[in-house]
Amino acid sequence: MEALITEIRRKFAEDQFEFSKHAVDQSILRHIRVQEIREVIANGQIIENYPQDKYGPSCLIFGLTEAKRPIHIQCSYPTRSLIKIITLYEPDLNKWNDNLTQRRPSNDDN
């Protein structure tokens, strides 16, 4: 996983990324700026890995902006020429543990 986040950071630093339409819509709706995305990628960690994702391998990154805003970013693996940001959001404390790195058990399981 360390090699994966290192390569994602390198591609972001070189502006080798793009947004899906959904990610653009979500960034506008949730007021998440590109600079905040860069900050999260620079200091974040991969918390979930989706190597079998139907649209291609991807992962979920959690990090904090310089202002300490927590953000989750799902993006493609860096095997693509451009990393695709699939979605992004502020994690909901009702759905994630206190450090926002693991999903809480769903109440739907009861």
SSE layout:
Layout: H1 2-13, E1 17-19, H2 21-29, H3 34-43, E2 45-50, E3 58-64, E4 70-76, E5 83-89
Parallel strand pairs: 1-5
Antiparallel strand pairs: 2-3, 3-4, 4-5
Q: Which sequence of SSEs, written as H and E, runs from N to C?
A: HEHHEEEE
**Could you list the spans in which at least 5 consecutive residues all have pLDDT below 50?**
none
Biggest beta sheet summary: 5 strands, mixed
Distance from N terminus to C terminus (CA atoms, Å) equals: 33 Å
Tally of separate helices? 3
Whole-number average pLDDT? 94
Helicity range: 25-40%
Widest sheet, order of strands: 1-5-4-3-2
Shape: globular
Derived structural class: alpha+beta
Strand content: 25-35%
Total domains, how many? 1
Q: Specify Rg, calculated over alpha carbons.
A: 14 Å
Number of strands: 5
What keywords describe this structure?
28% helix, 110 residues, 3 helices
Describe the structure.
With 110 residues, the protein is an alpha+beta fold. It has one domain. Helices cover 28% and strands 27% of the residues. The protein is built from three helices and five strands; from the N terminus they run αβααββββ. The chain has helices at 2-13, 21-29, 34-43, and strands at residues 17-19, 45-50, 58-64, 70-76, 83-89. A five-stranded mixed sheet has the order 1-5-4-3-2. The longest helix has 12 residues, at 2-13. It is globular.
